[in-house]
């Protein structure tokens, strides 16, 4: 769950000596914006459901994220604008197991008219539009592909 715009910034720092954490961060960034799931030029796979059984939740810091968002965007949003709760989500995708578990909620709303069902905050350029204030779930998430890569470091 990364942002291409940040990669440019980070790329400029590549000439500086890197410690282990910085190397790990660079590998994560490169993978997420250029080689997501090990596919060249693929980005932000975990910001979309696509045809997988996948839900972007639970968002444990939902209220805090909503607060950050409303501070940034001048109190524009209510909880339901941003999040889906179990009662609604379980009916939206009845054939997807991950949407049938109450523990996976609240989840981030998706772009329902997008064939890839991207998160509402993912732009057409595959950038997270709330990157600096994104939920903890997004900040901490490592998919299986990325976990394996990071374990090699
Ligand atoms: S964590 Fe995995 S799925 Fe998500 S953007 Fe990074 S490589 Fe892609
Ligand atoms: S909030 Fe940002 S990082 Fe999290 S799923 Fe949505 S687009 Fe991806």
Give a verbal description of the structure:
With 153 residues, this protein is mostly helical. It has one domain. Helix content is 39%, strand content 3%. It contains 7 helices and 2 strands; from the N terminus they run H-H-H-H-E-H-E-H-H. The protein has helices at 4-12, 20-34, 62-72, 79-82, 86-92, 136-140, 144-151, and strands at residues 83-84, 107-108. The protein has a two-stranded antiparallel sheet. Helix 1 crosses helix 2. The longest helix has 15 residues, at 20-34. It is globular and about 50 Å long. It starts with a helix and ends with a helix. The model is unreliable at 5-12 (pLDDT under 50). One iron/sulfur cluster binds at residues 1-2, 31-32, 36-37, 44-46, 141-143, 145-146.
Key features of this structure:
single chain, 153 residues, mainly alpha, globular, binds iron/sulfur cluster
Proportion in β-strands: under 5%
Total strands:
2
Bound molecule types: iron/sulfur cluster
| First-last Cα distance | 20 Å
Number of domains: 1
Structural class: mainly alpha
From the alpha carbons, calculate the radius of gyration and give it in angstroms.
Answer: 16 Å
- Strand order across the largest sheet: 1-2
Dominant shape: globular
Largest sheet: number of strands, sense, barrel closure? 2 strands, antiparallel
How many helices? 7
Mean pLDDT, to the nearest integer, reads 90
Low-confidence stretches: 5-12
Helical residue percent band:
25-40%
Instruction: Give me the strand/helix succession.
Output: HHHHEHEHH
């Amino acid at each position: 769950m990364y942002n291409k715009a940040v990669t440019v910034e980070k790329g400029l720092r590549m000439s500086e000596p890197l410690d282990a954490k910085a190397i790990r961060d660079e590998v994560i960034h490169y993978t997420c914006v250029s080689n997501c799931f090990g596919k060249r030029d693929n980005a932000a796979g975990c910001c979309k459901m696509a045809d997988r059984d996948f839900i972007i939740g639970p968002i444990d810091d939902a209220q805090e994220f909503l607060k950050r968002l409303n501070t940034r965007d001048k109190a524009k949003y209510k909880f339901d604008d941003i999040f889906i709760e179990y009662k609604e989500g379980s009916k939206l995708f009845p054939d997807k197991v991950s949407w049938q578990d109450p523990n996976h909620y609240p989840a981030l709303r998706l772009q329902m008219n997008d064939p890839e069902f991207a998160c509402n905050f993912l732009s057409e350029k595959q950038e997270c539009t709330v990157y600096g204030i994104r939920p903890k779930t997004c900040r901490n998430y490592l998919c299986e592909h990325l976990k394996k890569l990071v374990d090699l470091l």
